Amino acid sequence: MRHLRAILLLPGMGTLGVPALILAATGCAPLSWPRTVAALVLVGIGLSLMIRTIRLFATEGQGTLAPWDPTVRLVVRDVYRHVRNPMISGVSFVLLGEATLFDSLPLLVWFGVFVLANLIYLPLFEEPGLVRRFGADYERYRANVPRWIPRLTPWDG
C-alpha cells in the first residue's frame, strides 16, 4: 500500500493528474499518425524506466520513491548503473510524450517546469540527503554515474 500511495502521489499526479487538468483547461489538437507514434515511443520509454525504478526501490532499496518513505539501501543496480535519476528521466519522457501526443504547448510548459524543478531540487536537497544517509558509497557512485545523461557502459562499482 505504501508503494501504491507513493506512485499515485508522485509520478501519477505528475504524469496523469496535472496533464489531465491542463488538457481540460486548454484542449488539444487533432492527432496525426507520425506524432502519435513518436509520442507513444516516448511514453513507452518513460514507463519502462518508471516501472524498473519502482521495482528496484521496492526490492533492492527496501523503500519507495517517496521522500517521506525513502529506500534504506543505496540502489546502484540495473538502470542505476547508467544514470542516477532514471525515475525523473522516465517521468520526463512521459511528459514529453504527452505534450507531443496532444500537440499541447501548455503540456510542453509543464514538462519544462518539471525538468527545471528537478534541476534545482536534486542537487540542492536530494543529493545532500543521500550523502548524509549513504556517505562515501553515494559519493563514489555520484562521482562515477551521471545525473542525467546515461553512461554508455554500466558502472561496475
Summarize this entry quickly.
The chain is built from four helices and no strands.
What would you say this structure looks like, in words?
The structure is a single chain. α1 packs antiparallel against α4 (105-144). With 157 residues, the protein is mainly alpha-helical. It starts with a helix and ends in a 13-residue tail after the last helix. The chain is built from four helices and no strands. The longest helix is centred in the C-terminal third of the chain and has 40 residues, at 105-144. The mean pLDDT is 92. The protein has helices at residues 2-26, 33-59, 86-101, 105-144. It has one domain (2-144): Four Helix Bundle (Hemerythrin (Met), subunit A).
Average pLDDT, to the nearest integer? 92
- Proportion of helical residues: 55-70%
- Quote the CATH topology: Four Helix Bundle (Hemerythrin (Met), subunit A)
Low-pLDDT segments:
none
**Strand portion:** under 5%
Number of helices: 4
Q: What's the main sheet like?
A: none
Reading the helices and strands in chain order gives: HHHH
Given helix and strand content, the structural type is mainly alpha
